[in-house]
Specification:
Length: about 180
């Protein structure tokens, strides 16, 4: 057992469920093979308005909101809206998804975005408010081109693969000012 696995077992003693397991137990509809990363907030007080499909990745500190209490004082009611995150969607770190939004299948939302309107399938959106950057097809063509000549690293170059200090340095030097890819 490496140090990371040891810390993880210790953590599990006090927090036995992953965020995904916890939200699922609380009743949030979450499909199979999703990654709900640390610090993600799903609007629990209105969770039955939120649906998350299969193979969805929600990066750290994303907020998914289904209610807006800015109307409560004035109307006596809180505004609510269903949120649907479709299959294979990726939502970048620290993004905010507002009530009433649907993110279509296979779409990607950039880090730090504020998603105020629904996003169609198969596209890449980012910014505040989100704007379309490109189609998914164009994005993948671009990434594949970079991938072909970029340095690539296996699992032994990750924390889960217990990366050595030597490999960390090797990896850093191999990247220089270019992008690489890790398993
Ligand atoms: C949105 C994203 C997927 C686009 O990737 P990309 O196409 O390789 O990005 P580029 O750097 O080539 O940017 C393309 C354009 O989008 C803009 N852009 C990229 N990411 C953006 C973001 N997060 N917010 C606003 N604009 C963004 C760039 O400024 C650029 O605009 P320009 O053409 O006017 O100069 C990526 O930038 C991103 O945000 N990934 C998420 C990272 C993340 O959350 N990681 C968490 C761990 S999983």
């Amino acid at each position: 057992m490496n140090i990371r696995q040891l810390i993880s077992s210790f953590y599990r003693l006090f927090f036995p469920l992953t965020l995904e397991e916890m939200y699922r137990k609380m009743g949030v509809e979450i499909g199979a093979n999703c990654k709900i990363q640390n610090g993600v907030v799903i609007d629990y007080s209105h969770y039955w308005h939120i649906t998350i499909g299969n193979n969805v990745t929600i990066a750290p500190h994303v907020h998914i909101l289904a209610h807006d209490a800015s109307t409560k004082l004035h109307l006596g009611y809180t505004k609510i809206g269903n949120v649907t995150i479709s299959d294979n969607v990726f939502i970048g770190a620290r993004s905010i998804v507002l009530p009433g939004v649907t993110i279509g299948r296979n779409s990607i939302v950039g880090a730090g975005s504020v998603v105020t309107r629904s996003i169609p399938a198969n596209s890449v959106w980012a910014g505040n408010p989100t704007k379309e950057i490109c189609t998914l097809e164009a994005y993948l063509t671009k990434q594949n081109r970079v991938f072909e000549s970029a340095p690539k690293f296996g699992e032994e170059y990750t924390l889960r693969g217990n990366i050595s200090n030597k490999r960390k340095m090797e990896m850093r030097n191999a990247l220089g000012d270019k992008f690489g890819f890790v398993e």
